[in-house]
Amino acid sequence: MKSRPRPGQAAESTFVVEARHAIDFANDGMPAVLATPWLIWFMEHTAREAMLPHLEPTESTVGAVVDVEHLAPTPLGQAVRCRAQVLRSDGSQFLFKVEAFDEREKIASGLHKLNVIDKARFARRVARKAKPE
Questions:
Q1: Helix (H, G, I), strand (E, B) or coil at 106
Q2: What is the C-alpha separation between 85 and 75, in angstroms, rounded?
Q3: Partners of 15 in the β-ladder
């Protein structure tokens, strides 16, 4: 790592909820709203964005733990702001507080842990696992 993010450091990102981000069971009176897996995807990527300036070109991040409570629905067309704040680090592992807000209220809150990895070593591990036995 070039540097380590300090506790309290944060990153933010925004997106607009599109049809592709909606639950896949929006029918028979169930409105199209932001699906939890998409919300988590954006929250995880916000934490990753916080880490990118600190990484060497040979490094990347992988998610290790996601513990998010989806608190409120968000309809199509609304903007969502995600925030990821470093809580602590332990070696190559970083814990983030993650939150998301739509145009009206807080819609999610939780924790996300990610690991900084060496890309070449990770690729070798994946290649070994992909080989047929």
A1: strand
A2: 26
A3: 80
CATH 3.10.129.10 is right for the domain spanning 10-130 = yes
8-state DSSP, 103: S
Please tell me the distance from the alpha carbon of residue 126 to that of residue 120, in angstroms, as a whole number. Answer: 10
Tokens at 43, concatenated: 């929250």
Nearest one of 9, 5, 7, 22 to 80, comparing CA atoms: 22
Q: Which two tokens stand for residue 62?
A: 């992988």
Q: What is the block-wise mean pLDDT of the chain (133 residues), using blocks of 10 residues?
A: 94 97 89 97 97 97 97 98 97 97 98 98 95 84
- Integer Cα distance of 19 and 129 in angstroms: 35
Domain ranges of the chain: 10-130
